[in-house]
Amino acid sequence: MSDLSIDKERFRERFETFNEIGATDAGGVNRPSLSAENKRARDQLVEWFRDADLDVRIDKMGNIFGRREGRDPTADTVLFGSHIDSQYNGGRYDGVVGVLGALEVIEAFNDVDYRTDRPLEIVAWSNEEGVRFQPDMLGSGVYTGVFDLEYAYNREDKDGNRFGEELDRIGYKGDHPCEPGELHCYFEVHVEQGPFLEQAGLPIGVVEGVFGFSWLNVTFEGQANHAGPTPMNMRQDAFVATGAVTSAVREITATEGTDLVGTVGSVDVWPNAINVIPERVEFTLDFRSYDNAVVEAAVDRIRNEIQWAADREGLEYDIEEIMRVDADPFDETCIETVARAADDAGYEYTRLVSGAGHDANYLNTITPTSMIFVPSVDGVSHRESEYTEWEDVVAGTEVLRRAVVDRAAIE
Ligand SMILES: [Zn+2]
Fold it and tell me: Distance (Å, rounded) from C-alpha 299 to C-alpha 62?
């Protein structure tokens, strides 16, 4: 077999060119879903897919596929990719590494006319980030049957623009049904967005699965009163109870399982004035772990803390669990494929679990799936300063290339 290695200079040039679209002064990109910049990025990608002799297909959700036939046209397809929408003023690597890396794998095969047994498809999923239209991972969600198309089309941004109409407006409401063909497996390269690989000094993370989580909405209802004349023993302060619960989150995460993380991320206070005792607070809780029992235990404990805090302060309270998702282990065979690919390429790696959700989660519900992580410098993501060493991007893509060669062969 000829040398199938990727061309890291070509890849880098493409990466830089792509990230000129929607580039921000602070070194990030601003290409939120279905924006003008997102359209330009899509146009560029489609052009490159065509240049690479891929058969381009846009589905009804605006997911962009590029297909390359294999020797056996009836065989199941090996699918790999990621997303190209960004956060508002987000980073250059999140998603882009996985999509342009997939394209570079195709280019490397084209360089030497290498033909796989199975057909290959690369993909850029629509609306992964979920910043303009919620929920996130909408394109892969419809593709895998988690959401129906009408639900997706009716998602609105904060100005009342609907996803379906915006998709049409930018010219990416495709004709092809948003549903999977016969898939053999799915791979995705992504930046880690956390600190573990960098701390371990390793270029590759073999992703075993993704954390499960619970999201809670909590409300405390007390009594507003003047902050001056009201004695401390006559207060029913909704924010004092919120502070106690926030501290309890730290206590629970320190004692309930090594990988448990917990966050109070959104807080609304009424009346939110300097001289009025807070009458009402609504806040969110987010607990995540790879162990479903740990999430369960954390939720039980925080329910008690909320009740105690309300009792101490004389408040009414309400707890609503708005989302509970179990931990999602990836396919053992695909995990092994990625580990073997890293070994063969001579890269050191560790197995790890993702704290963040990815399109790969939804793909994992319909086909064997795994992911490849590359280090995020300082664990930073969803910010303009997001950075990954180019050698690490190359390493992750080379592992993807080997995993694809492996799984696209028919024994
Ligand atoms: Zn991403």
Answer: 38
**Longest CA–CA separation in the chain, Å:** 84
Cα-to-centroid distance, 193 and ligand 1 (Å): 9
Cα 195 to Cα 202: distance, rounded to the nearest angstrom: 11
Omega prior to 135 cis, within 30 of 0: yes
CA of 309 to the centre of ligand 1 (A): 37
Ligand 1 centroid to 94 CA: how many Å? 5
Question: What pTM was estimated for this model as a whole?
Answer: 0.91
Cα 307 to middle of ligand 1, angstroms: 37
**Cα(239) to centroid(ligand 1), Å:** 34
95 C-alpha to ligand 1 centroid (Å): 4
Is 393 within 8 Å of 105 (Cβ atoms)?
A: no
Residue 278 CA to ligand 1 centre (angstroms): 38
In angstroms, what is the span from residue 254 Cα to ligand 1's centroid?
A: 28
What is the chain's pLDDT, residue by residue, as a tens digit (411 residues)?
458 999 999 999 999 999 999 999 999 999 999 999 999 999 999 999 999 999 999 999 999 999 999 999 899 999 999 999 999 999 999 999 999 999 999 999 999 999 999 999 999 999 999 999 999 999 999 999 999 999 999 999 999 999 999 999 999 999 999 999 999 999 999 999 999 999 999 999 999 999 999 999 999 999 999 999 999 999 999 999 999 999 999 999 999 988 999 999 999 999 999 999 999 999 999 999 999 999 999 999 999 999 999 999 999 999 999 989 999 999 999 999 999 999 999 999 999 999 999 999 999 999 999 999 999 999 998 899 999 999 999 999 999 999 999 999 998
**C-alpha–C-alpha distance, residues 96 and 92, integer Å:** 7
Residue 383 CA to ligand 1 center (angstroms) comes to 12
Distance from the alpha carbon of residue 362 to the mean position of ligand 1, in angstroms: 14
What separation in Å is there between the alpha carbon of 202 and the centre of ligand 1? 20
240 CA from centroid of ligand 1 (Å): 36
**Cα distance between residue 30 and residue 19, in whole Å:** 10
The burial of 208, by beta-carbon neighbours within 10 Å (0-12 exposed, 13-18 middle, 19 or more buried), is given as buried
CA of 256 to the centre of ligand 1 (A): 29
Contacts with 398 (C-beta within 8 Å, 6 or more apart), sequence order: 5, 6, 345, 347
- Cα(185) to centroid(ligand 1), Å: 19
